[in-house]
Specification:
heterodimer; A: about 325 residues; mainly alpha; about 75% helix; B: about 550 residues; alpha+beta; five-stranded mixed β-sheet; four-stranded mixed β-sheet; 18 helices
C-alpha cells in the first residue's frame, strides 16, 4: 500500500504540469490582454501599458512566463495580476466558504441518500421506489439558479426566516456553527439536491445488485438476522460504487459552484476561479487549477484507500 | 427479538420521536426568525454589486464610490457640479488663473496625524510618478508635471510647500478646472507610504489597509464578502452620525431584493421589475435617480457607409428610445440626447435631440443616395447597407442590440449583431485602428469631470474619437475654448454648443439612460436631494439612523 501511495503521489507531478500547461495555453490563446483589465479604456492614453506588462512579466516568452509562474506558485510567491496579493492567500480566503458548504452538503446528502436508497432497493418498484425515482429526476432537472432563487423568495422574501446572502452576519468573525447555520441552510439544500439523486441512484442499483448475490442468499439460509445481513454484507459490499461516486463529487464540490456562490453571495473558490479567468488573471487561474487538480488526485487516492479497507479482494489481491 | 424492536435512546424515547423533536426544534428556531442583521442602532449594511480589486491606482467605478467614504481632497464637486473647499480652507486663484495658494484646514488623517502641505505634495507627486499606472491627464497641467512624469525631474516644480499648512500650485497655463479636476485628488499620508516602491504599488500594505482623511476609516476588508467602515473621530467635518457602514457584496439582483425586503440589509439597488412593489412597501424609501450609465453606439466614420452625417442622423432618428426604455427598463429611464449627466450644470436642459421618426430617417438616407433594393435593404452604387454591430457581451447590451437591429432594419439598414467577450472587446476590438463598423457600449458619467469625458469622446485626439474616426475642427475648437475660460457663463455657452454639435454631427447615436433605483430602509434618514449614484455614496456620511 505504501509503495502504491508513493507511486500515486509521484504521478501527481506530471499530471499537474500537464493540466496547468494546458490551462495556461488556453488562457494565453484566448483573446484579451490582462493589462487591459487593469487600465480602464478612458485612461489608456496616459497609462504606460508596456511598463505594466513588464511589471507583470508579460513581456517574456510564454514558456518562461509559465515556468516562472509555476516556480513562484510552488514557493508561495506567486501574486495575482489584479491586486498583486499572493494567489495562495486569495485562494485560502475563499476556501472556508467552499469547504463549509461542501462538508454540510456531503453530510446532508449521505444522511438522506442512505435511507432513501435502502428503502428503494428493499422494495423495488414499490410506491416508495417510484417516489424516490421521481425525486431524483426532479433533483437532477431543477436548475440550481432557479431553485436557489425560489428558496430565497419563499424563506427570505416572504417568510423572512433565513438570510439569503453571505456565510455569516456582518461584523462577526470566525465560523461559529451556531451563528452561521441559518446562512447555510439554503445553499446546502441547493447543493445537496444537485448531488443527492446521483448518489441515490448509484447506491440503489448497487444495493439491488448486492441483494441478488449468492452470498446474501447463503446468509439468509443460514438464519442470519436481516439487520446483520444488511449492515455486514449488503451495505459494506454496496459501498464501493458509492465511494467511487463520492470521489468524483468531492473535488467537483470543492472547486466551488459559481452559480450557488453568486445566488447566495458566498465568497467561495468558484467565483474566484471564474472571475479570474474572465479577467485573464493567469496566476490565480493557475493556482485554482493546481489546487483543483490536487483535489481530484487526492480524492481518487482516498477512494482507493477506501476500496482497500472495504473490499478484501483488493486488500489481498 | 432485539432486531425487531425499534431502537431506543437512553431514556427510552424512540428514534422516530427523537427525529420528530429535532425537526420541531428546527421549525421553532426558524419561526423565531433570524435577527435582521441590518437593524443595528447606528449601523447600515449597504449591498454592493462588486468590491474593489485595488483601492489605489485604480479607476474602477466602485473604487471611486468607496473613496468618498475613505478619502478627502482639497476641493470637492457636489451633485450639481459645484465646487466647495474640503481639506482646503482657502483656495484663491491668482488673477491670471495660473497660481493657487491653498491653506489647509486643521484636518487629520484617520490615524490621528494632521494633514500637512507635505502630504499634499507627496500625494500629487505619487499620482504623477512615472510608474503610477493611472495618472489623471489634468494633473499634467501642473508646471513641471510632465517632466516629472517622464522621469526627468526629481520633483514637481509647480508644487511648493510654503508652510506646514500652506501649499502653492503653479500651472502651465490658465487652466479653468483646477478645483474640479486637480483639487479633487485624494490626499494620502506621506508617513504611511514612506519608501514606497511605486512600481510595486499594489504590493504595499497600505493598499489593503488604507489611511485617508475622509469621514470613515476602513476597519475590515473581507475579500469578495464585505468592507466595514467606522466613523472617523478625527474627521474635520464632524464625526458622522452613522457609526458603522458595511458594504456587503451581493452580486445577484434578486437576492438583494429579498434581503432588503427581509430587513437584512439597509440599502440596496432595486431592479426595475421590483420598483412598483417597493413603492408600496411602507418600510422602504425608494430613491430613483438618473443613472450614471448612458448607452450609445458609435460607428467607424472612416467607412464610406458612415461618412455622410445624414446617414448618422438617420440612425439617430430610427431608434425608438421610448420603446427601448419600456421594453427593457419598464420605462424607468430617460432617452439620452446629451453625453453629459443631467445632474450637472453643464447639461443643456433645452436640448431637443432626436425623437423616433423612421420616415425622417428614410428621407435622410434617400438624400444621402441610399435607395431600397428588392428586399428592402438600402443600396448605393451596388453596395448593400449591411454592417456588423459588435457589442460588449452582456444582457443589457444584447437586448439593446436586438432592438437596434429591428429599428435599423425598418429603415433599410441590415446589421449582424455579435457579442464580444470583455477581454477581447477592450484589448482588440474597441481600440484605434480595429475593424469596427458599428459598436455598442455604455459610458459611466460622473467618474471623471465632463470636460475629460467630452475630450475622450469627441476631440480628435480623444481615445474614443480615435476609434470612431470622428474629427471635427469645430468640436476641437469648442473643447479647447471650454478648457481655457474660467467664466462660468462662457463655459456654459460653450458646453451648450458642444452638445448641439454632438447632435448635429452624431459621432455616436445615444440611446437610453436607465434610472438607478435604490431602496433604503425608512429607519435611515438621507440628507437633501440625491440625484446620482455618486451623490448617493457621498451622502452616506450624512445619513442618520432612527
Amino acid at each position: 500500500m505504501g509503495a502504491y501511495l508513493v507511486r500515486r503521489v509521484i504521478a501527481l507531478v506530471p499530471l499537474l504540469l500537464g493540466v496547468t500547461g494546458i490551462v495556461f495555453a488556453l488562457l494565453v490563446l484566448a483573446p484579451g490582454d490582462p493589462v487591459t483589465f487593469l487600465i480602464p479604456p478612458e485612461q489608456r492614453g496616459q497609462a504606460d501599458l508596456a511598463e505594466m506588462r513588464h511589471q507583470l512579466g508579460l513581456d517574456r516568452p510564454l514558456p518562461v512566463q509559465y515556468a516562472s509562474m509555476m516556480r513562484d506558485l510552488l514557493t508561495g510567491r506567486l501574486r495575482a495580476f489584479s491586486d498583486r496579493r499572493p494567489t495562495i492567500q486569495r485562494v485560502t480566503e475563499a476556501l472556508p466558504a467552499t469547504l463549509i458548504l461542501t462538508a454540510t452538503s456531503i453530510v446532508v446528502t449521505v444522511v438522506l441518500a442512505t435511507p432513501i436508497a435502502f428503502l428503494s432497493a428493499l422494495r423495488p418498484y414499490s410506491l416508495v421506489d417510484h417516489g424516490a425515482t421521481l425525486f431524483s429526476l426532479l433533483g437532477i432537472s431543477l436548475p440550481t439558479f432557479w431553485f436557489g432563487l425560489g428558496l430565497i423568495f419563499v424563506f427570505t422574501e416572504r417568510l423572512g426566516v433565513l438570510p439569503a446572502s453571505g456565510l455569516r452576519p456582518a461584523g462577526t468573525s470566525g465560523y461559529d456553527p451556531l451563528v452561521i447555520w441559518p446562512y447555510l441552510v439554503m445553499p446546502t439544500v441547493v447543493q445537496a439536491l444537485g448531488i443527492l439523486p446521483v448518489l441515490v441512484r448509484y447506491a440503489r442499483s448497487s444495493l439491488l445488485d448486492t441483494l441478488g448475490q449468492d452470498y446474501i442468499r447463503v446468509a439468509r439460509s443460514k438464519g442470519l438476522r436481516e439487520r446483520a445481513i444488511m449492515l455486514r454484507h449488503v451495505a459494506r459490499n454496496s459501498l464501493i460504487p458509492v465511494v467511487t461516486v463520492m470521489a468524483l463529487l468531492v473535488p467537483f464540490l470543492l472547486s466551488g459552484s459559481v452559480v450557488i456562490e453568486t445566488v447566495f453571495a458566498l465568497p467561495g473558490v468558484g467565483q474566484l476561479a471564474v472571475n479570474s479567468a474572465l479577467s485573464r488573471d493567469y496566476p490565480t487561474v493557475l493556482t485554482t487549477t493546481t489546487i483543483a487538480g490536487m483535489l481530484v488526485v487526492l480524492s481518487n487516492l482516498l477512494a482507493d484507500i477506501g476500496y482497500f479497507y472495504l473490499d478484501p479482494r483488493i486488500r489481498h489481491g | 427479538m432485539q432486531g425487531l424492536t425499534p431502537a431506543r435512546g437512553r431514556r427510552g424515547i424512540s428514534m422516530s420521536k427523537r427525529i420528530g423533536v429535532l425537526l420541531l426544534a428546527l421549525v421553532v428556531a426558524c419561526a423565531a426568525r433570524v435577527p435582521a442583521v441590518g437593524q443595528g442602532a447606528s449601523q447600515a449594511i449597504v449591498s454592493i454589486w462588486g468590491l474593489p480589486v485595488r483601492i489605489l491606482g485604480s479607476s474602477e467605478a466602485v473604487t471611486s464610490y468607496l473613496s468618498l467614504l475613505l478619502n478627502d481632497s482639497l476641493t470637492a464637486v457636489d451633485g450639481q457640479g459645484n465646487v466647495s473647499g474640503h481639506l482646503a480652507e482657502k483656495y484663491p486663484a491668482s488673477p491670471d488663473g495660473k497660481t493657487y495658494v491653498i491653506t489647509l484646514r486643521a484636518a487629520k488623517f484617520q490615524d490621528g496625524t494632521p494633514v500637512t502641505a507635505r502630504d499634499v505634495k507627496f500625494s500629487y507627486e505619487l499620482y504623477l510618478h512615472a510608474k503610477y499606472p493611472t495618472t489623471a491627464p489634468a494633473l499634467l497641467e501642473i508646471a513641471g508635471a510632465q517632466e516629472y512624469k517622464a522621469g526627468k525631474a526629481a520633483s514637481v516644480s509647480g508644487i511648493t510647500v510654503l508652510t506646514p499648512r500652506t501649499i502653492r500650485f503653479i500651472l502651465n497655463r490658465p487652466y479653468p478646472y483646477f478645483y474640479e479636476q486637480i483639487g479633487t485628488a485624494p490626499i494620502l499620508p506621506e508617513h504611511a507610504l514612506l519608501n514606497l516602491d511605486v512600481a510595486r504599488l499594489q504590493e504595499a500594505p497600505f493598499v489593503r489597509k488604507p489611511i485617508g482623511a475622509g469621514p470613515y476609516r476602513l476597519v475590515e476588508w473581507r475579500e469578495k464578502e464585505s468592507m466595514t467602515f467606522e466613523a472617523s473621530p478625527d474627521y474635520w467635518g464632524g464625526v458622522p452620525t452613522l457609526k458603522r457602514v458595511v458594504l456587503k457584496l451581493i452580486p445577484e439582483d434578486a437576492t438583494v431584493i429579498a434581503e432588503l425586503r427581509a430587513g437584512n440589509i439597509d440599502a440596496g439597488r432595486i431592479i426595475p421589475e421590483a420598483y412598483d412593489s417597493f413603492r408600496t412597501d411602507p418600510r422602504v424609501r425608494v430613491l430613483r435617480m438618473p443613472g450614471d450609465t448612458n448607452y450609445w453606439f458609435t460607428m467607424n466614420m472612416k467607412l464610406p457607409f458612415f461618412q455622410d452625417p445624414r446617414v448618422r442622423q438617420a440612425m439617430a432618428y430610427a431608434v425608438n428610445r421610448d420603446e427601448m426604455l419600456r421594453a427593457l427598463y419598464r420605462g424607468l429611464g430617460t432617452p439620452v440626447q446629451s453625453p453629459i449627466h443631467p445632474s450637472l450644470w453643464q447639461y443643456d436642459k433645452q436640448l431637443k435631440g432626436y425623437t423616433y421618426d423612421p420616415a425622417k430617417a428614410k428621407q435622410l438616407l434617400a438624400e444621402a443616395g441610399w435607395t431600397p433594393g428588392t428586399d428592402g435593404i438600402l443600396q448605393k452604387g451596388g453596395q448593400r447597407f449591411k454592417v456588423k454591430y459588435g457589442f460588449l457581451a452582456g444582457k443589457d447590451y444584447q437586448n439593446q442590440a436586438l432592438l437596434i437591429q429591428q429599428y435599423l432594419r425598418a429603415v433599410g439598414i441590415e446589421i449582424d449583431v455579435q457579442g464580444i467577450e470583455r477581454g477581447d472587446f477592450f484589448s482588440r476590438y474597441f481600440v484605434p485602428g480595429s475593424p469596427i463598423e458599428l459598436v455598442g457600449i455604455a459610458w459611466f458619467n460622473l467618474l471623471f469631470p465632463p470636460q475629460s469625458e467630452l475630450e475622450a469622446g469627441f476631440k480628435s485626439t480623444g481615445s474614443v474619437a480615435q476609434i470612431s474616426g470622428y474629427n471635427s475642427p469645430e468640436m476641437d475648437r469648442l473643447l479647447d475654448e471650454a478648457n481655457a475660460t474660467r467664466d462660468r457663463t462662457k463655459q456654459k455657452a460653450l458646453y451648450d454648443q458642444i452638445q448641439e454639435l454632438v447632435l448635429r454631427d452624431v459621432p455616436r447615436v445615444m440611446t437610453v439612460r436607465p434610472d438607478v433605483i435604490w431602496g433604503v430602509k425608512k429607519t435611515l434618514t438621507l440628507p437633501g436631494e440625491v440625484n446620482s449614484l455618486f451623490a448617493f455614496f457621498r451622502s452616506i456620511a450624512a445619513w442618520q439612523s432612527r
